[in-house]
Amino acid sequence: DNLIIKSLNLSNNNNTKQKSPTKKEYKLQYCVYPGNNTPLIDKVMAHRYEEWEKVPTTFSEFCDLVWSPLSGSINFQNCEKRHQYANHIEFNIEISNKMRLFANLLRHCEEKKIDTFSIFPFTISLQLSHWSFSDQLNNFKKLYYNIDSFTPNGNKKFNEMFNVILSRKIGSMQYINIPQSFNSGKNLWIIKPINLNRGRYITVEKSLKNIIEKLEVIQEKKKININDKKKGNEIKCEYILIQKYLEKPLLYQGRKFDIRIWIMLITGQENFVYIFKQGHLKATCHQYDINSSSPFIHLTNYSVQKHNADFSKIEIGNEISYEEFQDELDRKHPGKNFFKDIYPKIVYIIRLAVGACKFNLNHLNRTNCFEIFGCDFILDQKFKPYLLEINLNPGLEISSPLISKLVPRMVDDALKLTIDAKYYRNKEETASNYHVDGYDDMENMWEKFNI
User: Fold this and answer.
1) Per-residue confidence at 20, pLDDT binned at 50, 70, 90?
2) What average pLDDT does the segment 226-240 reach?
3) Does the pTM of the predicted model rise above 0.85?
4) Burial of 244 (0-12, 13-18, 19+ CB in 10 A)
5) Residue 236: what pLDDT?
6) Reduced 3-state DSSP string for the chain
7) How far is CA 334 from the centre of its chain?
8) Is residue 6 predicted with pLDDT exceeding 50?
9) Any bridge partners for residue 36, and if so which?
């Protein structure tokens, strides 16, 4: 820009008529780290008025936009000093880490005088290397043997038996209340490591003996094997969660499912959350059977189900639209409406969860950052939603015709609210290149909510 100004001054001095440039003589630059459908990002960026060019990731320090599957590739200081945009928010672990999410929710719900376990499954967080591990394991045994006394209203406070991140201040006002839908008499529990995704090492257990043995093995090694077929494929494990299994889930055509909702946070807008207006259901391959131990019956994760021989036989990608779900409700539960009766409750829980984490997210106040998360919800037989987790780096791979329509529009509309709002001098709205049935091409499908 300084060179342009100098050139204009020289031209004026020489009485040479020259037209002032109307735009910068260089293009904006972006780089994309590989993984999670890199070609999609390139495709979406190609529609941005030819003002952008892609450069290798070796030049990431100098780019106007850095897109990466993992936040470890982002230098957040650049977002502040060089006004670089990035697709992650610093300290996103506060909302994407299962233990941190639970701790933040527990604290926030106490402040709001809300029963945490009315929106989130009852959860115990165990620190494997701490002296309290044995004590909390013994308290879990007491809970296991007396589960009926905690259903649906227990008289024991959470912090009297368990703690989260070893803080007695958290859970001091919450009672251990296990909703009736989580207890059908089978006493099923889920064991989850806090630092893994895609359903890895998540197991559903009924036998207390099996639960204790599994936990003690992990506690002794402080590691878990993420691939039983390969030796030496172990990662460190400091915390592990025990979570009550929802034993009476609502079913879709006899199969268990969860609901994926995309949300987006933008720095500088800490009091708001954006929720994409369309999401999808992720169903299992096989009919629900509470007596089965098969992960293909209990775990709805795409990364688990795709290894089943029956994957995609009923729906491509085992993925179902909101409208198809409503059709099922109309057939099986006349009068029940997803958009009027269920979705508003999901939005309420999202707003509550983001509100619980917002003060710990981005607490260094970096600018020019945004992040898309994948929230997973499950419904019980009474259509009540529960938040299961909030996923970092949700999958952008095109796994079905449904996803092929939603994901490109979701990413494109997210960039309109972030980099387009920041960089483009021409603010005129343009029609989306990615049509979604039922929505205007001029509409941004991210809906903004207060938290």
Assistant:
1) very low
2) 64
3) yes
4) buried
5) 72
6) CHHHHHHHHHHHHCCCCCCCCCCCCCCEEEEECCCCCHHHHHHHHCCCCCCEEECCHHHHHHCCEEECCCHHHCCHHHHHHCCCEECCCCCCHHHHCHHHHHHHHHHHHHHHCCCHHHCCCCEEEEECCCCCHHHHHHHHHHHHHCHHHHCCCCCCEHHHHCCECCECCCCCCCECCCCHHHCCCCCCEEEEECCCCCCCCCEEECCHHHHHHHHHHHHHHCEEECCCCCCCCEEECCEEEEEECCCCECCECCECEEEEEEEEEECCCCCEEEEECCCEEEECCCCCCCCCCCHHHHCCCHHHHCCCCCCCCCCHHHEECHHHHHHHHHHHCCCCCHHHHHHHHHHHHHHHHHHHHCCCCCCCCCCCEEEEEEEEEEEECCCCEEEEEEECCCCCCCCCHHHHHHHHHHHHHHHHHCHHHHHCCCCCCCCCCCCCCCCCCCCCCEEEEEC
7) 31
8) no
9) none
176: phi then psi, degrees, rounded to nearest 5? -80, 95
Rounded to 5 degrees, what are φ and ψ at 275?
Answer: -125, 125
Question: What is the identity of the amino acid at 440?
Answer: D
CB 236 within 8 A of CB 221: no
Torsion sign (Cα): 159, 161, 162, 166: positive
How confident is the model at residue 23, as a pLDDT? 46
Give the C-alpha distances (Å, rounded to integers) separating 176 from 15, 140, 336. Answer: 83, 12, 30
Q: Identify the residue whose tokens are 């850095």.
A: 66
Widest pairwise Cα distance in the chain: 93
What residues does 60 pair with on adjacent strands? none
Structure tokens at 116: 């945490």
Residues 126, 242: Cα–Cα separation, whole Å: 8
189 CB-side CA count, 13 A: 26
Separation between Cα atoms, residue 253 and residue 262, nearest integer Å? 24
Q: What is the pLDDT of residue 224?
A: 60
- Distance between the two ends of the chain, CA-based, in angstroms? 41
CA 223 to chain centre: 25
CA distances from 121 to 155, 180, 419 (A): 18, 12, 37
Q: Which two tokens stand for residue 62?
A: 């100098």
pLDDT above 70 coverage of the chain, percent: 88
The lowest-confidence range among 47-61, 136-150, 186-200, 372-386 is 186-200
pLDDT, mean of residues 333-338: 97
- Pairing state of beta strands 385-391 and 370-379? antiparallel
Phi, psi for residue 123 in degrees, rounded to 5:
-135, 140
